[in-house]
Recover the amino acids of this structure.
């Protein structure tokens, strides 16, 4: 229950408090956004192929992927949050992090994943910030799929 409450507070905060805007008058030397996510894998090429073939993420020639913040339907913000050690929200993954991918149509995306044999761990359509579902990648990293509530 504590996990649900902490997540609900986080999700609600995304929409209740606007993202802090960087303005021309701000002092230089600050974080402006998430520039990348880097993971360690026993088999990076196989993991990248899974993200390409199962999740539909286009890979660049150098092996990774890029995501545009201005893609149609993409949420206006990216979230960073730290959970206390032992937090169950990332379970059943044993990794110390979770990925959250924004999707434009959760129903259609889950249909595609099921057709590819991906197990859907859980789904939640009751959150005020949107619809959510969770899966694991081949390395056991928990992935949250989020269809943002249209505003």
């Amino acid at each position: 229950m504590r996990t649900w409450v902490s997540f609900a507070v986080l999700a609600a905060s995304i929409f209740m408090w606007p993202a802090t805007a960087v303005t021309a008058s701000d002092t230089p030397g600050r974080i402006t956004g998430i520039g990348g996510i880097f993971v360690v894998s026993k088999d990076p090429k196989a993991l990248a192929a899974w993200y390409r073939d199962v999740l539909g993420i286009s890979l660049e020639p150098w092996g990774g992927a890029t995501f545009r913040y201005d893609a149609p339907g993409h949420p206006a913000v990216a979230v960073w949050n730290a959970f206390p050690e032992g937090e169950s929200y990332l379970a059943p993954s044993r990794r110390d992090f979770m990925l959250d991918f924004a999707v434009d149509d959760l129903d259609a995306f889950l249909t595609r994943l099921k057709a590819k044999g991906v197990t859907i761990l859980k789904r939640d359509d009751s959150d005020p910030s949107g619809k959510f579902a969770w899966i694991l990648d081949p390395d056991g990293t928990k992935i949250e799929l989020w269809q943002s509530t249209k505003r």
Summary: The beta strands are 99-102, 122-127, 130-136, 142-148.
